[in-house]
Design goal:
By secondary structure, the protein is α+β, with helices and mostly antiparallel strands. The chain has one domain (3-189): Calycin beta-barrel core domain (Lipocalin), CATH 2.40.128.20. It has one helix and twelve strands. The chain has one helix spanning 3-31, and strands spanning 35-45, 50-63, 67-76, 89-99, 106-109, 112-114, 117-120, 130-136, 139-147, 153-162, 166-175, 178-189.
Length: 191
Amino acid sequence: MNPRTLIRAALVAASFVFVATNGAFANEAVSKFYGSYVGSGKAEVLDRTEQEVRDLDVTIESFKDDGFTIQWITVVRGANGARTGDDVKRREVTENFIPVEDKKNVFVLAPKGGLFQKSELPNPLLGDAVRWAAIDGNDMTIYSLAISETGGSELQVYRRSLTEKGMDIRFMRLQDEDVKVRMSGKLVRTQ
């Protein structure tokens, strides 16, 4: 076999090792977060100078090869702290993230689409939020950036930090440079 053929074969083999190693890092980094967590938190709504009690439910599981699915449910309790009533709000979100090539422990929202649909990435100019996640040790931070109708920005930052019993969660929503909501809470792992 000539030397150029050997070099090409070695480069091809090295690229497969790199791709597999890159994916393995992502999987190890994210798999420690897999599970279900429940708890509550308190949010400061700075526009209205009031506090809200929020019930929180988070599930993180594997998605495709090295990505993850995160589902969270937030129930904002009513003014008197009740879990039922006209002023109780419930929000449920499920998102799939896939690893970003060449960025260790960084994930991007998986394109939507399917077998008979063209996969499409979010378009911020059409009002879609751009979402990505970064894992640093025991912290998983998910960012969501959107352009408002007036051309301003809205940034939401969800930081979930693993603890001995589950996870701590911190959330912040900013519009342009102003912090609008700050929330923190504690969740226990249920599985």
